[in-house]
């Protein structure tokens, strides 16, 4: 029997600033409730989630707010609204854990990336995160610069 080849995850959008601006805590994988044109537009890879966040509403549902999925050009009148709130699909206990983190500990729910899994379904990786202060950001930058310099020195020595 031949072994199945693992398809690499196709990343549709990534929030690279999140790891710089936030201390990332626990991460979750959630499904996205999308329309057909949104999925087709995501496959082109032009979505942005840099300024987006997730919030829990009164009914206990989780929504992705301020994420931009551009209109699909070939869909003319059946297109979607680019910045509409999109429902995230998680288990109830995970939603409760996220809402408690945002209410009690002053954390935010930050999207890290949107990707397509092995089955071709659109998934989003979200994290419970705490905002970094300016001095924390400087410390992160110093560590990154030192690691880069250390790599250069090791390559030069052999």
From TrEMBL:
Coiled-coil segments on the chain, per record: none
A Gene Ontology BP annotation from the UniProt entry: trans-translation
GO MF annotation terms: RNA binding
Cellular compartments annotated: Cytoplasm
Pfam families named among the record's database cross-references: SmpB
Predominant localisation class: cytoplasm
UniProt xrefs under InterPro entries: SmpB, SsrA-bd_prot, SsrA-bd_prot_CS
Function: Required for rescue of stalled ribosomes mediated by trans-translation. Binds to transfer-messenger RNA (tmRNA), required for stable association of tmRNA with ribosomes. tmRNA and SmpB together mimic tRNA shape, replacing the anticodon stem-loop with SmpB. tmRNA is encoded by the ssrA gene; the 2 termini fold to resemble tRNA(Ala) and it encodes a 'tag peptide', a short internal open reading frame. During trans-translation Ala-aminoacylated tmRNA acts like a tRNA, entering the A-site of stalled ribosomes, displacing the stalled mRNA.
PANTHER family: SSRA-BINDING PROTEIN, TMRNA-BINDING COMPONENT OF TRANS-TRANSLATION TAGGING COMPLEX
Name of this chain's protein: SsrA-binding protein
Organism this protein belongs to: Methylocapsa palsarum
Gene: smpB
């Amino acid at each position: 029997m031949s072994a199945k080849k693992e398809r690499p995850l196709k990343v549709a959008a990534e929030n690279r600033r999140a790891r710089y601006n936030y201390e990332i805590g626990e991460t979750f994988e959630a499904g996205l409730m999308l329309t057909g044109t949104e999925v087709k537009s995501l496959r082109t890879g032009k979505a942005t989630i840099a300024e987006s966040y997730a919030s829990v509403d009164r009914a206990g549902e989780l929504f992705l707010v301020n994420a931009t999925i551009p209109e699909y050009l070939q869909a003319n009148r059946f297109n979607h609204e680019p910045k509409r709130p999109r429902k995230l699909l998680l288990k109830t206990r995970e939603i409760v854990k996220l809402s408690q983190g945002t209410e009690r500990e002053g954390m935010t729910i930050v999207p890290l990336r949107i990707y397509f899994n092995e089955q071709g379904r659109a998934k989003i990786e979200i994290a419970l995160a705490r905002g970094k202060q300016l001095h924390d950001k400087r410390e992160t930058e110093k560590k990154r610069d030192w690691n880069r310099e250390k790599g250069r020195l090791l390559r030069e020595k052999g």
